[in-house]
Write a structure and sequence with these properties.
Blueprint lengths: L1 E6 L6 E6 L2 E5 L5 H10 L9 E3 L5 H4 L2 H6 L3 E4 L1 H7 L4 E2 L4 E3 L2 E7 L8 E7 L2 E6 L7 H7 L4 E5 L4 H6 L4 H8 L7 H11 L6 E5 L8 H10 L7 E4 L9 E2 L3
Parallel strand pairs: 3-4, 4-5, 5-6, 10-11, 11-12, 12-13
Antiparallel strand pairs: 1-2, 1-14, 2-3, 7-8, 8-9, 9-10
Length: 247
C-alpha cells in the first residue's frame, strides 16, 4: 500500500491510494493541470487513473471534477452525494471490490448531504481515511480500528479558532459535532487507534487561518507519548510524503 495526499485543505483535497491494480483517487479538489503535476511528483500518471471516490459534495473536494468526468472517470459516492452534485455514478453504501481493494464506506458526521469515510483492505492490511468530520462517534472509531495507516483530519487549534477573525456562527459550525475535528480530538482518536495496530497517521485538512503545522504535530504527539509509529503532515500546495503500508 502507498497513500499520498496530493493536496489537503480548504483550497483543494485529493488523495491517491495505490491499489493492487492501479491508483485510486479519493476526492477531486485540484484543477486538472495541478493534479497532473502533483501526481507526476510521486510517480503516478493522472491520465491513467480510472476510478474516483468522493467523500462529499463540498467545493474543496470536487473543484476539479469536471475535467475528470469528461475523461470518463468512474465515480463512486454515496447516493446523497451523487444527488447533491447531479452527476451519474456508482452508488456506494456497502463494501465493494475496486482495483483489487475491498472498499468499506462508513458515514461521517459532517454538514453535507451524505458524507463518507473509507476503509481500504487488501492482503491483511488496512488504510482508513476520514478527513471532514466534526466528531468521532463509536461507529467511526470502529471503522478505523485495526488500520495500520489512517489519514485523519486535524483542522484547527481551538485557541487560534476562538481568537481568530472568523464570524461567530462560522466558529460554531467548525467546532460543532458536524463540523471539523480539532487537534486535541484528533490526538485522542489516534491514541485509541494506536492500541489496535496503527503504525502511521497523516494529519489532514489543516486550516491555514486556525492552525499551524507545528501546533498540529505537537498536540497530537502529546496524546501519543509511547507510540512508536510516525506522524505525517499534509499540505494545501504540494504532495505529502508517500506513506507505505502493508500490501
Amino acid at each position: 500500500m502507498r497513500v499520498c495526499a496530493l493536496g489537503s485543505g480548504s483550497s483543494g483535497n485529493c488523495f491517491l491510494v495505490e491499489a493492487p491494480r492501479g491508483w485510486l483517487m479519493v476526492d477531486a479538489g485540484l484543477p486538472w493541470r495541478e493534479l497532473r503535476r502533483r501526481a507526476a511528483r510521486i510517480g503516478a500518471r493522472a491520465e491513467s487513473i480510472t476510478t474516483l471516490l468522493l467523500s462529499h459534495e463540498h467545493t474543496d473536494h470536487v473543484r476539479g471534477l469536471g475535467p475528470l468526468l469528461r475523461r470518463g472517470i468512474k465515480v463512486w459516492a454515496s447516493p446523497g452525494t451523487l444527488a447533491a452534485l447531479g452527476i451519474p455514478g456508482q452508488p456506494l453504501s456497502s463494501p465493494v471490490d475496486i482495483l483489487g481493494l475491498t472498499v468499506r464506506p462508513f458515514p461521517l458526521p459532517h454538514d453535507a448531504a451524505e458524507p463518507l469515510g473509507f476503509r481500504f483492505e487488501a492482503n491483511g492490511a488496512a488504510l482508513g481515511l476520514a478527513t471532514d468530520l466534526g466528531s468521532v462517534p463509536p461507529d467511526v472509531l470502529e471503522a478505523l480500528r485495526g488500520c495500520q495507516v489512517v489519514a485523519l483530519e486535524a483542522n484547527h487549534d481551538l485557541q487560534l479558532l476562538l481568537g481568530g477573525p472568523y464570524p461567530w456562527p462560522l466558529k460554531l459550525r467548525i467546532m460543532g459535532p458536524r463540523g471539523h475535528l480539532g487537534n486535541h480530538e484528533t490526538g485522542q482518536t489516534l491514541a485509541q487507534l494506536a492500541q489496535t495496530g496503527l503504525r502511521a497517521a497523516l494529519l489532514a485538512h489543516l486550516s491555514r487561518e486556525n492552525n499551524a503545522p507545528h501546533l498540529a504535530l505537537d498536540t497530537v504527539a502529546r496524546a501519543l507519548p509511547d507510540w512508536e509509529g510516525k506522524l505525517y503532515l499534509t499540505y494545501p500546495d504540494r504532495p505529502s510524503s508517500v506513506v507505505r503500508g502493508g500490501w
